[in-house]
Amino acid sequence: MAEAEAAADTAHVLVFPVPAQGHLNSFLHFSTGLLRAGLHVTFLHTDHNLRRLGAAAAASPRLRFLSVPDGLPDDVPRTVDSIPRLVLSLTTTGAAAYRDLLASLRRGAAGGATAADGFPPVTCVVADGIMQFAWDIAEELGVPAIAFRTASAGSFLAFLSVPKLIELGELPFPDGGGDLDEPVHGVPGMESFLRRRDLPSQCRSLTETHQDPLLKAVVAATVHCRKARALILNTTASLEGPSLAHLVKEMRDVFAVGPLHAMSPAPAVATSLWRHDDRCMAWLDGKADKSVVYISLGSLTVISHEQFTEFLRGLIAAAYPVLWVLRPDMLGASQDAALQEALAAVGEDKALVVPWAPQRDVLRHRAVGCFLTHSGWNSTLEAVVEGVPMVCWPFFADQQINSRFVGAVWRNGLDMKDVCERGVVEKTVREAMESDEVRSSARAQAEQVERDIADGGSSAMEFKRLVGFIRELSS
Ligand code: UDX
């Protein structure tokens, strides 16, 4: 993707992510790659997010933003609790609006004429791999559709394996899940390290009569990806070769094109739903090399006041300077009190607490020694690329399996899964900061990934192959 911008061509991709920060980021980096290859991109937001992005959403010449309603009233917070509602309203209200829009933009509409804004008709859809309606509708309208799943190949394989785990009697957990350290045998290639606690979190509540609606929806969408023209994953062969090798046998085609954020260092436009706090970098500048613990639990995690207190006490005991992201919607009503408590307890010179940080720049900063993360896939990849050791406290869904890979396979961090206790926080953070072994694994992995995305590397080649594939579908 490092090549100079190619001449614009008539391949025009409509991309449609799930309207959540992690998905938006991956799709933005993906779109930047398409633009650099010369394609046109229509980025489909929801009305709510496009309003929230405001001026930040100004488009570049071959990129435009359009939107459809997500079906929820504007004052409903788009937090983790509203995800099932959001997914449902997207598949009804959102899907209907998307169908109308795509019908007017597709190849053949208005005799295939170019629109007044210079955009050719849409020739291909790349839709989020958990919104199967988006690629079904596209194909019904005669537009070839590809699924892009923004999470890891490993988590995709785990969701794909859920029906088999049920068939094998591994799910629901036979003894009610009593021992979460029991091994899981039914996810191919992961037999030697996967435990019940590493499966997507919603598997824990599965019973003979109850299935979490989100698990049901994600498993159905994952299985349905077999029908898409291809599956795109934001990963690389060096990180997830064995999982990819299994998926290649299951899907029509698989493109491992990540880490996308590292392949397009200058994104076409910003898609951050929160404003970065400008104080972070100057504060880090004043700290010694590898001395700071950076904590961020992503865009959806919510924590209780008790969990907050355990983190706080553990970090105070570990005694490193801390840069802490506490999103305004993360702790509910006790947020302000928590903030004051943190600053008073740690001391303002030793802690900076912000609502949102420029995470990629933070992780790249020489002062950051480790990253206490919820193991969202974007955050994981961002830490991998910078070679920063992780302390993982996965919150939900795919994060449980991502943290297992970090702790047991890549060994570039430590997995605190299911424990939020001050003594463990202290010990684990200390180990991540001090362990030469963890730091050198993180460094070696970053170097390998750098090779993957460089010219001739596996991800760079895959991206080229994908652009060719899209052009072929568009012709
Ligand atoms: C969750 C998942 O865990 C993820 O794996 C899934 O694919 C989507 O839903 P999220 O909580 O958003 O995502 O986490 P993550 O995937 O890590 O994405 C968060 C993004 O926000 C990252 O790109 C990160 O750099 C950015 N971020 C986070 C900031 O820019 N500033 C912050 O302060 C915190």
Automatic annotation (TrEMBL):
**Highest taxon listed in the record's lineage:** Eukaryota
Which InterPro entries does this one have?
A: UDP_glucos_trans (IPR002213), UDP_glycos_trans_CS (IPR035595)
The protein's name in its UniProt record: Glycosyltransferase
The reply to whether Translocase figures as a keyword in the UniProt entry is no
Which keywords belong to this entry? Glycosyltransferase, Transferase
- Enzyme Commission numbers on file: 2.4.1.-
- Organism for this UniProt entry: Urochloa decumbens
One of the entry's Gene Ontology molecular-function terms is: glycosyltransferase activity
Lineage, please? Eukaryota, Viridiplantae, Streptophyta, Embryophyta, Tracheophyta
Q: Which family does it belong to?
A: Belongs to the UDP-glycosyltransferase family.
CDD domains, A to Z: GT1_Gtf-like (cd03784)
